[in-house]
Specification:
Organism: Scopulibacillus cellulosilyticus
Largest sheet: 3 strands, antiparallel
Protein name: Translational regulator CsrA
Number of helices: 2
Helix content: 25-40%
Order of helices and strands: EEEHH
Distance between the termini: 51 Å
Shape: elongated
Subcellular location: Cytoplasm
Number of domains: 2
Structural class: alpha+beta
Pfam family, one: CsrA
Subunit structure: Homodimer; the beta-strands of each monomer intercalate to form a hydrophobic core, while the alpha-helices form wings that extend away from the core.
Strand order of the largest sheet: 1-2-3
Length: 77
């Protein structure tokens, strides 16, 4: 893990096109501003993990498993 020290209004760059700026520090909270291309999804980690879990559950439903088996049987024909 890379650890950097930044002050309010200072930034850091991730690659060539993602900028993370420290907007302010209030108590134990840090406010961040993120500039990134629209095609890059940005989520809080707990939301990201929830999306991943829902995607995994959807991929493992009986409907998707039945569809996958049906497609496999069509390929064998």
């Amino acid at each position: 893990m890379l650890v950097l020290t930044r002050k309010p209004n200072e930034s850091l760059m991730v690659g060539d096109d993602i900028e993370i700026q420290i907007l302010g520090i209030e108590g134990d909270q840090v406010k961040l501003g993120i500039k990134a291309p629209k095609y890059i999804d940005i989520h809080r980690k707990e939301i990201y993990l929830s999306i991943q879990q829902e995607n995994n559950q959807a991929a493992n439903t009986s409907l998707s498993n039945n569809l996958l088996e049906s497609l496999k049987s069509l390929k064998k024909q």
